[in-house]
Write a structure and sequence with these properties.
There is one protein chain. The protein is mainly alpha-helical. It folds into two domains: 105 residues, no CATH class; 33 residues. Helices cover 63% and strands 0% of the residues. It is elongated. The protein starts with a helix and ends with a helix.
Length: 160
């Protein structure tokens, strides 16, 4: 009788879940995400692997995919913030988790995913760069001992 009630509750929420879906772990569905990066030839595969590692470290590799909730995603965001991660990094990681679920749905492995709508406020993108004239104006006010270091950084792009 309890199984029947559970199935009726799933139907009521629009979440019919079969036994295969209940067995899927975060590691199982994250593999699709990494394969997608490889198939599409994206150069940021190492970055994607790092994001997956952070997600697995928090949620656990063997965590059932369907047990990940919106509240847990918020807890993940707080955890990463407390670790010192920037809001942009956390947003990319939670976007990766959303993509992991989306790919699993497209592959027919899952029928639903938790909502991932709460993004953290990111700092504004850097604006303004030194033009050659600005650089020379600043350079003229520095002691000779610092000019070589400044020249190297400016010309090599290490100052950006």
């Amino acid at each position: 009788m309890d199984k029947l009630k559970a199935k009726l509750a799933e139907i009521g929420r629009g979440r019919m879940v079969g036994p295969e879906q209940k067995r899927l772990t975060l590691s199982n569905i994250a593999q699709e995400y990494l394969q997608d990066y490889e198939v599409r030839g994206l150069r940021s595969l190492d970055t994607a692997k790092g994001r997956v590692t952070h997600l697995k470290d928090f949620f656990g590799e063997d965590t059932k995919a369907l047990s990940i909730t919106t509240d847990q995603v918020r807890a993940y965001q707080l955890h990463r913030k407390q670790e010192g991660a920037e809001a942009a990094t956390i947003n990319r990681e939670t976007s990766a988790l959303a993509r992991i679920f989306t790919l699993a749905i497209k592959a027919g492995k899952l029928s639903w995913r938790p909502p991932f709508s709460d993004r953290l406020e990111e700092a504004a993108a850097r604006q303004g760069f030194f033009e050659v004239g600005d650089y020379h104006a600043i350079r003229e006010h520095l002691p000779d001992a610092y000019r070589g270091v400044l020249d190297f950084g400016y010309l090599s792009g290490l100052g950006t």
